[in-house]
User: What shape does this take?
Amino acid sequence: MNPCHDFLNQLTRRQFFSGAGLAMGGVALNWLAPRLHGAARPPNPLDARVHPPLGGFPHFAPKAKRIIYLHMNGGPSQLDTFDYKPALSDKFDVELPESIRQGQRITTMTSGQTRFPVAPSIFNFAQHGQSGAWVSDLLPHTAKVIDDLAIVRSVHTNAINHDPACTFLMSGSEIPGKASLGSWLSYGLGSENNDLPAFVVLTPKFSSKVAAQALFTRMWSSGFLPTSHTGVTLRAQGDPVLFLENPNGVDAGTRRAMLDSLAQFNHLAHARHGDPETMTRIAQYEMAFRMQTSVPELTDFRDESPETLELYGPRVKEPGSFAASCLLARRLAERNVRVVQILHRGWDQHGTLPEHLKIQCLDTDQGCYALISDLKRRGMLDDTLVVWAGEFGRTVYSQGTLTKTNYGRDHHPRCFSVWLAGGGVKGGVVYGETDDFSYNIVRDPVSLHDLNATLLHCLGIDHLKFSFKSQGLDQRLTGVEPASVVRGILA
Assistant: This one.
C-alpha cells in the first residue's frame, strides 16, 4: 500500500486544477514580489554588512557601541581587592558567627571543617581618587583610574561551583546550551566590521603555577542562536587562528575561485534542504578569507607608539600575556568589533592566597589600567563598555590552616565585587554594601540577571524585548525571573 498512490487515485480533476492553480499563482507572486517592491524601496546600506543588526535594533540610542569583558576565571577574593572590611582585623581566628552564616550552603571542600575561623585580609587598603573608593594595595595601577570605575560590591549568583557559575555568568543560566552574552550581542546588534568576527575571545596565559579551572567553549557559545554568532578565539601563542594561511602552492586567487565554487554548491544545498546552517557555513568561509588579511595586520603591534607600549608595561611584548591581550582588545575595539572577551585563569585560591593572589594581580593590574587609560585618551571610553568580573566571590573564613601570613578562601556566591567603566556608566561610584564580614548583602543587591540587563541597556537593548524562540520558549539572556537595570551606576 502506497499512501501517495491512494491519494492521487482518489483525487478529482476539480481538486487537482484547484490546487495547481493556487500553487502556480504563488510561484508567480514570489517571482514578481522583488520587482514590485524593489524599485519603490531605496536600498538599505546595512544590507552590505556581513553581520547586520536585527530589524529595530538597537531599541533606543545606546551609550556604548561595543563591550570588552574581562573575566577573572576562578573567583577573585572581594575581601582582598575592593570590599574593605577594617573591623575584621580584631576578629582574627574568631569563629564565624552563626548569625552571619545563617545555615547557608557551603562547598564540600570546607563542609568537613570543624571550625570556620575568620581570616582578615593581609593586604593594606587606601582611598583613591575624588570618589575616595577603597582599593587594595594589590591593585596600584587600577587605583589610578578609580574615578572612571563604578564598583558594584553587591553582586550575587546562584551557583557555588566553577563550571555552573561561569556558565551562569556568561549565559544567564547554569544549564549548558544557552547562548552567551557575546553571542546575544552579535545576533542583535551585528558588527560594522566586515573583515573580523563580531565576537572575539582571548585566553591569555597566567603566571600562577597552581592548577586552574578549565575554560569551556560554552562561555562563548551561540547555543540555540545561529552558529555564526559563536565567539571566535584568537590563540595566545603561535598563529592567532589555525589554518588561516593558504597551504603551499595555493595563492589568493586560487583560494577565491575555490570558495566561489564551494559557495555555489552550498547555495544549491540550501535551496534543496533549507538548512540555515548552510548559509552560516558560506558566511564563515567568507569571513575566514577576509581574516587572512585582517588578522595579521590586527596582531602586529609594530605600529604602536613607544608611549602606548610603555603604558601597558613590559609584559605587553610577551605574546599571550594579559597586557598584550588588553592592547589587542583596544585594537579590536578600534576596528568596531562588537564584543571582545578576555578570560584570565588562575583566580581559585583555596590555599596560599596571599602568594598566588598577588601573582594574579601582577598579571592583570597594569593591563586593566592601561586599557581604560588608552581608550580614554583616544576618545573611545565614552562608547566602549568595559566590565571586570569573576564568577563568584570568596569566603571570609579560612579554608585549611589559618596563620597571620597565610590563609585560603572557599567559593562564596552570596556576594562579590564587579567593576564597570565606559559607555553609559557613571565613574567614581561605589554601589551596594555587604555586612561586616562580606558574607551577606545589606544594601542594593544586584543579581547576575540585573547585571546583564544593565549591560544590554548600555548597548541600547531592552532585555525584556530581546528573545529567541527555542524549544517552545521565548529564551532571554536575563531569564524569566525579575531583573532590573541598575540605574544607580548609569551616567
About this structure: The first helix runs from residue 3 to 10. The chain is about 35% helix and 15% strand. The radius of gyration is 26 Å. The chain has one domain: 66-240+318-489.
